[in-house]
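Q: Two folds, back to back.
A: First:
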Amino acid sequence: MLDLLLDINVVEGPFLIAVYVLAATVFVYLLGRSVGWSWVLAVIVLLIVGAIIGVALVWIAVNLLDLFGGPVNEETWFWVPAAFAGIALAIWNLWRSRWWRKLIAVLAVPLFAATAALGINAAYGLNPTLGSMLHISTADPIPVPTPDPADATDPLEPLYATWTPPAGMPERGRIGTVEGGVPNTVSGFPARPAQLYLPPAALVEEAPRLPLVIMMMGQPGDPDASFIGGVLDRFAADHDGLAPIALVVDQLGDPANDPLCLDTELGQVETYLMQDVVPWAKQHLDVLQGRTYTTVAGYSNGGGCAAYFGAKYPEVFGNLLAVSPVEYAGAERPDEVLREIFNGDQAAYDAVKPATIMAAKAPYTDTTAVVTVGADDGAFRPAAERLAEAAGAAGMTTTFFEVPGADHDAGALEGGLEEGFRVLYPRFGLAAP
């Protein structure tokens, strides 16, 4: 029963519509407390004052406290002032009113706040269910069979030319948490459970070894494989069930934290990814072993991580896919990171920036880089452009793509992944060149 509640769609559909209708009904009821021009004037003043408070709080949160790690979308600037305008009206209804109006006014405060939260979440589209909004996963565990070590040699011929899908192969892949988890034996990093996407071709007897994608999501966010799984399901449908195996891991430890994807006092994230996750995935997942078939990917905060790991470890990752990435670790608050993590050592800070690493390791003779960003994402587009320029200058085979009509939202994530795999499928041997 709890899982059914947590799996409610909160970005579209009847639940969201019902909340909007309920909030609008309560708002209209609160408006009707009285009649006459004095009440109309009072309502106008209340709504304006409430909206101004909402605008001020968003401005402080974004520009002074940097609570969201950068700018917010236009819908946030609408929903928060609207919620505070409604709350101001609700509070005014508490005075000299009957008990039932007081009760409705009290209940209206959390209702308006929740409606705003749902509206903002729906605009971004990155938390499609109530559970994902609350950072609670309802994904079932997926057993991870140990691959045959005798079959570890990568094929000489591309899979698209040799693979024949068997009868009864599932039409869609499977998503779930890794049964038993990915051990953090070396790093000790308190990562949340990783999620795994297995494509249709991985769900049959005598499944072929497939490419590996290790992905990280944004911050705040969770290791959620639903987005990459949905995109890869569409590719698999057009390529005889073939798609990479995708392992979505946690680089945060907590959605409120940003350990910078480095080894610092905030956590041993780099060690976790490179010495815990990568060896485990190569050993326990039925994946191709060569760097050509190994991709590090990420969105937003995770996109900056992907650029960092792809730049620093080209011997491991033959491909990097950075979707709407931050430019470098802590780019949203560089002065704080420089002071608190690098003790004011600018050279040490610069040394971990992907562009610096790319320039130092150039030329990259066989690395494919795909950098994407929403065409309407004014905050992240300059960083994505600079990363793409640095990758190209370092010799990576680079694609830069702007997702039409997308901001820093689910549209940018899905569109970026689609462009990335459009580029990478021939390199993986899953599609003809």
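A: Second:
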Amino acid sequence: MKSPVETCRLPAGGITPHAPHRTGAFEAKLMEVLEEADIRLGGSRPWDPHIIHSRMFDRVRAQGSLGLGEAYMDGDWECERLDEFVHRLLRARAEVRLFGQTFAAWWDLIRTRLVNLQRPSRAFEVGRRHYDLGNDLFEAMLDRRMVYSGAYWAGASTLDEAQEAKLELICRKLALEPGMRVLDIGCGWASFLQYAAERHGINGAGITISKEQAELGRRRCQGLPIEIQLRDYRELKHNGGFDRIVSIGMIEHVGWRNYRALFEVVHRCLRPGGRFLLQSIGRNEPATTMDPWIETYIFPNSMIPAASQLATASEGLLVLEDWHSIGPHYDRTLMAWFNNFERAWPSLKERYGESFHRMWKYYLLSCAGCFRARRQQLWQILFSRDGISGGYER
């Protein structure tokens, strides 16, 4: 299996201008659609893209968003403010007219209809290909607690403050008390469990599909009543073993075929009177596929749920108590990650290489633009096992 570093390559000799751009039918359409989004090819504003190699047009025409991202990785085009370019493109819904239904998009749709891409045998693939890239990368990019999910910036001025504010917000929604047994499904580097044990006196268990996360999480939680295991959520057998359950930024790897299975696990593991807090990126309409560039290079087998998919999957198992939308906070989080990444790049580049640099930059900034355009959301959803007596007040 090739790593993301091996799958992207710059042209020999770096980024240099090539032959004059063609002005065929697709190029004319591209310029027209971009103008409607207040984007001009070769313009002078920071969000105006500049074409380095005319083959970019063929790649976008044939492969849509996958071709656009790969063309950027290969240096076929440049943009000073990539985040703002994507924001304007998506805000005007220009990508619908521009990309249409490419063969790659049709194939992804057929594939997800025929195959469970998130079946147990594939559960650890995203761990190996993304989360195991290197703890040095994530330590440099994230906050001091290594929280790899959207922060909560209300009243916060730094990433450290915003992530701790998010962790505390979740603790308060769960009404944590000392001695409670808490399960974190998709615990990452155990940032939430560590915080909840230090600040609220809980006993915790966490599971992750990343070997690197599990090892570093155990080291970070030494001396605390926390257990970290490398396992898939479907392997959990703790019937009624937990007072509280949390899952922060993990359900994006579960897939539409398996949402019900996740909620069944939560229902089985919660004690009577228990609560479950789910933090998830969300999309505005149901789908069964992921953006092909993100799925290919960043998060294999991933899928962002819609509100209706989550609500349907939980019916008859849990009581929905509160739905909190904080999507704009993720834009600011991604920009903070990008700034950290750029500052740390001189110490990372020897290991990861320039091809990885362009790929990671495209990942962080295009996602920031997507949240800025409100095409993706961030939800904190609070469930109870039996209904909170008297109701829940945020």
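Q: And?
A: The chain has a mean pLDDT of 90.
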